[in-house]
Amino acid sequence: MAMNIRHFLNFLFTGAVLVTAPATAQRQYVLKGATLINGVFDRPLKEHLVVVDGSRITGVGRAKKVIVPAGAVEIDLTGKFIMPGLIDAHVHEESPDDWATYLDWGITSVNCMYENSDTALAREEWSERDTVRAPRIYPTATIFTTRGGWWEGGDFPEDPAVNRFPGDPEEAREAVEQLHAKGIGRIKLMMDDMRWCRDPLAPLETMDTAIAGALLAGAARLGMTSEVHAPGRSMAAVAVDGGVTALVHGVLDDRMTARDIESMLSHQTFYIPTFCLYYFLADVDTFMARAMADDRFRRSLPAETVARLTGAEYSSRYRTRYPNGGFVQSHLPALNANARAIAANYGQIAMGTDMWALPGIGAHLELEYMVKAGLTPMQALTAATFLGAKFLGVLDRTGTVEAGKDADLIVLDGDPTADITNTRSVYMVIRRGKIYRPPWNPAPPGR
Ligand SMILES: [Zn+2]
User: Fold this and answer.
1) Span 262-273, pLDDT tens digits
2) Half-sphere exposure of residue 293, counting CA atoms within 13 Å on the CB side?
3) Is residue 78 part of a domain?
C-alpha cells in the first residue's frame, strides 16, 4: 500500500485536501467485514464487501466473489452495517447552512420544494458537485396554489419566471410548459383549505379542480413528476385519479377505503406520509422534547438552536399559526392506519419528513414513526432508499448498494433492521465515494 492507512484516511476525511488533490485516482477502497443492507433483498447480508472506485460502487459481494483492485485501501468495518444513503422525499430549505447537517446524518439525496424555480435550478447544479458537503438536491418547483390559498405573498416569494397562481386551465398548462422548458422536472400543487390545522382561523382558498387537473395532465404529458399536498381523503382521491405522481403528505382526516388504495395501486401513486410534520403540529412541545431527548441529535445542532426549538416562544408561534393541533392529535390513528394499509398492499411508500426545523434528524424520527405506525423496519428502510430513488426517477444512480451506482452509503454501528433507531448510530457517510464523519461522533476511523 503506497500510503499509510492513517494518512490515507485523513486524506479522505479532509475535504480541503480532496479539493486540491487528484482525487478520483486515489479514492479507491474496499469496505470490509460489515453486514450489508443493500436495498434490494429483504434481509441483511453478512460480511459483504463494497468496492468503491472514484464516485462509484464497482463491486459488491462476498470476499473472493468480488474483484478488489490491487491498490485499493481496506477499511475494516467488522461488526458494522452498510446501507444505501437515505433519501428524504419532502424537505424545505430553511437555510443553506443546514445541508451539511443533512449529509452528516446520512441523507445523501433530497427532494426539496422551492417556490422559486431559479433558486431550485441553482441549488440542483450546486449539489451536483462532488466536493459539496450536502445531499444531492433534486428540486421541485414551483409550488402552485391559488389566490388566497397557501401561500400568497407574505413570507413566501413569487416565482418571477412563472405564474404560481394560474387563473384557468390554459394558464396552468402554459406555466407547466414554461417550467419544463427551463429544465424543471417536478412540480407541486397545494390542494388544501388547511382547516385541519388552522381551524378556527379562516379556511384558505383551494385550487379549482379543473386548474389542478390541467397542471397534472400537463406534467404527465411532458414526463414531469407531479406532487400534491392534499391531506384530506377526498382531495387526495381527486389527485390520484388525475394521475399525480405522489401524495407528498399522508391522508390524515379519514381512513382510506379499499377503493382509495386500489386506485393508488393502479395509478402506481407514491405515498409520502410525513409523520414528522403531523406529530409536530399535533403538539410541538412533545415532538421537540422527544427529538431532543436523544443526545446525538442535540449534539448535532448548535446549542442556541436547541434552546430555540425547545423554548416556549417557538411552540407558541406554531400554536398561533396552527391552532388545530387537537384535530391532528385525534387523527394520528387514521394517519397510521393509512400507511399500514398501503404497506400491507405493497403500495409505494417513500420517506419524507417536511421537517424544516430538524435537518437530517427528521429522517431518523420519520423512520421511527413509520415503524410505530406498523411498517417493518425493512419496509421503512426501503421507503427511505429504493422507493425514494424510484419516486425521484434516479434509481439508475442511487437508492441501492449495487455495482455501477454512485457510492451513496451510510455505515452504522447498530443493526437498523433489529431496531430502527439504530439508523442514528451513524459511523460514516459516503456520498459519491467521498467519506464524511459526523462531527458529533469524532471517534477515529478503523480500529
Ligand atoms: Zn412541505
Assistant:
1) 999 999 999 999
2) 9
3) yes
